[in-house]
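thought: fold this chain, then report.
action: predict
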Amino acid sequence: MLPGTMNKASFFLCILFFGLTTSLPSYGHTGHTDPELEEINDYLMAIQLMRHYDPQAIGIFEKWRELREASWKIRELTDNENLLVNSGSVLEQIAQARSLQKDLLLACRNYFLQLESKQPVIRFAFGAESVSTSWDDPVFEVEVEHPRVVLVKLTNQTPEPLTINMSGEYSDDILFWKKDILLKGAGSRYTFVVLKPFREGISESVLHVSNEKGRQAEAHIVLHGVGMKSVPSRVYPGKSIDLLPLSAYDHVGNDLLPDFKQAIRFKVSDAQTGRALTARVEVKDKNDNLYWTPLKGPSFAIDRTRGWNTTLWEFQPGPYFYIADEARLGVDPKGKTATLYHGFEYKPVTVEVPDDGLVNVALERWINMPELGWYSGQTHIHTTDSGVPVMFSRFWPLITRAEDLHVSAILTLKGEWDTHAIYANEYPMGLREAFSTGEHLVTYDQEYRSNPYGHLIFLGLDYLMQPISSGALGELAGPDYPPNALVLQEAIDDGGTTIGAHFGNYITNGEPVKTPWPSTGFEMPVDVALGKIHLAEIYGNGGQQSVWYDLLNCGFRVMATAGPDWDIKDTPRVYVNLEGKPFTLANWRAALQSGRSFITKGPMLFFSVNGKLAGSEINVSGKRAILKIEANGLTPDGKLPVEVVFNGKTIRSGIDLNENITVEDSGWLAVRTAGAHSNPVFINIEGRPAGMSAPAERFIEITDQLEVWVKTRGLFYSEEQKQQVLDVLEAGRKVFRDVAENARMQGR
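observation:
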């Protein structure tokens, strides 16, 4: 049978497939997400927490694992067996997966319906003129570090559909993810609040609801956090969901360990100020055996023996641990050495541990970047560094302080392993005040994932963008829809900063477009051309500097950032200049987005053109520009040679550059050195708009390649969805054609 044709059996499977899909409208709170996929995602976030105390929730979660396997099977057929999406076996697998999707949704609804009679429920009923609120118990008593889910039931008492907006007041113990929920006429739906005390005491918050007609209501919630009576558990992988208790040093109860008979005690300070410092520590003996547990006191261990051994360990240079205050390592101090670190701005120190076990170290700061106006951060962090997913605890922020990261963006994500449907979702979006200090901010943001369109990062949104991941990585047999351009535009409209993660990964090596790993970003060039990506993740997991250069050479202004993804130790970061403004998350993000920054694996890089910082624009009225370049690179060991790059080519190099250069064309100037790269300064020569034809034509070819995949192997609920994706690709392709045509007119 020829590709693209169907026999009679395939025809009937196709009818079955579209019969399954036509009942699922392609709209939701964002206007582009199926509301039933949103509903399943919402339920899964609750159910994966409820597994820890309700065996019935484990059974529901197993249904998701079955759906996940069936969903990936579709992609195995199209990617590995090279079958078209309209072939008989693929259509049959789609129908099976979609049936499992419906079964999961029904099981979730029935599960929560049964729970209504067993536990307190917050209820909101929306009538034609008012909203009523009722619930069973306004005060909840919950053990520290033992999250509990409280159901919220929404009922529409009118015959017309309603969109319900829900939000909670800020709390670090009473957690609610802001969302919009579509309620059918005379329908109802569940959502949830998480009660997660990280300390004993009383916490209060208010849950707000409203609809598009202006009807409002609220529920006042009081949480009483009580002392831990049992050890928390974590989920470990296997053929079934295994809940295993954490050992004492894994959670806030590590102070319950008996006193160590032998221990190494640490006292770490700033050599100049005497101020106490948190630190990363590595301890070993003469045979290079490493020691990292048991720990007592404020600490967080990274190792390869607890948790699960995955390919992530290729990135993990552990074991090591983080300490603060009077933390102790319960091992014999004799014959040990300790190495202590505190970020990029301090010199690490290695010392022999004295027999009395007291390691008293003063770390020397070789440069103080905040005094110079620069603040470091990482824009792509997942909380899985101990080898167990979702390991955030009240001690995790030791990492951001010990690594001296001023901004740590932890990203919620979807589409990884079968232990969790959604990862790193311990807290709602936004700054987490309880885990931040005036110098070190911890914020929750989102990685929105799609293969092959690309992985995206959204900073600054106060809600979780649905469907969290699309297509194969949604793991719900959902469509390869929406195109990333739509969700990027929504993020921009809502004031977010958009980042292309793993920027340009695997799109230029000629490999076929595929949906499984590794992550790819075939739509990213189009999204940049359409002005929807602010930043490119160049230093991190898979970022491609050559793709960034090509897009800059097309005349697009996309800035570089850095984020480690899964690992944390000695990983790249971005330094942002606030130009004299106070250090706040909003100021840092605004300067990051404008490109007042450099990315680094250790060296400090300073660069200006005519006194203007990276991210600036210089307009020139004549035919050439004489520009004053100042650039230098620094490390603890001295100065580094730097290269001045104009439109991707080195035009100057040296140490402590301070000289004039002449340019006769528009483009971009940047500085790089071994392990660091500045963002560009943009030069506009009057009458010569920037842009080159060759890279624009390469991006047209990449877009053509993705278009073929969309037409033949993409999974869509309707032809309208497919056409919207194709329209986005064509819009981007037109921009690249215009760039190429204009560049040829300029002789480029």
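thought: worth noting. Residues 1-30, 244-253, 304-317, 385-390 have pLDDT under 50 and may be disordered.
final: tokens above.
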